[in-house]
Amino acid sequence: MEKVKQFALDMMKFIDESPSVYHVVENAKALLEKNGFKELDICSKWNIELGKKYYVKKTNSTILAFTTPNKLDVKKGIKIFASHTDSPSIRIKPKSEVVTNNMLRLNTEVYGGPILSTWFDRPLSIAGRLLTRSQDAFKPKVSYINLSDIVVVIPNLAIHQNRDVNNGHKIDKQKELLPIISLVNDTLEADNYLLKTISKKLNVDIEDILDFDLMLYPLDKGRLMGVNEDMLTSTKLDNLLSVYTGLMGIIESNNDSEKINVFVGFDNEEIGSSTKQGADSNYLAHILERIVYSLGYNRLDYLEILASSFMLSADSGHVAHPSFMEKFDITNQCTMNNGVSIKLSVNQRYTSDGYSMAVLKEIVRDKDIKLQVFVNNSNEIGGTTIGPLSASHLDIEAVDLGVPILSMHSIREMCGTYDVFYLKEIAKEYFNR
């Protein structure tokens, strides 16, 4: 239990230190470099060797790491663990300052599909990236920002002015989701206040600031929960839990399985993945092709390797909610600490099928790893993930799986402590095969 608990604590620490998608990738980079992975320049020719470990970034929000074996067998293909680095959030708009009734608020826009009510009346802060001038107009300098000492809050309207709030309240995104950052007084200049604050904190000339990508995030830390600490609660379990377990899986795996192992964390899953750094792009296919070519193989070899390849698409699943059991399937529902869920949809909202599920079951056979199956209630549409998109671009076998959680897309989610460890063990065993 101590090993399982410590892994959960390490995972939550990774999440706590990753307040934006850009920090996720930077922290993943640090973890990889600490374990011997070398960065490749996406704009340069690669000299890849067998028996080595590498990683490459894209647009500061997508990262791919891979290992090459000491001896490559093209018949064993490439084994991919895919996840996504983004989570539902609230982003800050340009020219964000709004002054109302002596209060300075920031104009915002919703990213993805968060449960908005969970963002009210709690300490939030601001994080993301800042773009400033450099010598090359096409390559502005990128700085990562975490204004953790500045607390902002999105306040609810008191029940006295909204008596029906507990009967359901439709949130006006443009009107209500503006966090208060300061009170206006004689010395405060509201115009461009946020950039002036950032300029002062980072000691950057405000004239050199070109733009930003900033978002709100909760200041509350992740923690173990329950009498036996066999559960945990944290922000962004969907899907940083999968990012961390996949990274640790490839880090802990051996490098001697005669195949190429790949971890990838895509951005923009929460908004459909149809971006240059999303799963519904040619990014992964192009990177894999570059790897194969850099090892001295050709296009036909690449297609042959793909034909023997496989992908685990890791994204959070659903625990059957005890208050809403009617929303879940009558025979295929998930419980906490009963294993990682294999996600199945005959309409291919998940990429799993009988073949790929059989492969996964065989990989973990005789291991101390639990699996369970999730299928949506037939009256519910359910969500989707990166699996079908990536598999269709690569034309490879794939299975969707993930740790089942409660409160998906809330500002805080929860899951079983053991299930987090099971997913890491699956990733490690998969890469070792």
TrEMBL record:
InterPro entries: Peptidase_M18 (IPR001948), Peptidase_M18_dom2 (IPR023358). GO terms for cellular component: cytoplasm. Its cofactor is Zn(2+). One of its GO terms (molecular function) is metallopeptidase activity. It is an enzyme of class 3 (hydrolase). Keywords: Aminopeptidase, Hydrolase, Metal-binding, Metalloprotease, Protease, Zinc. The keyword Chloroplast does not apply. Belongs to the peptidase M18 family. This is M18 family aminopeptidase. It comes from Sneathia vaginalis.
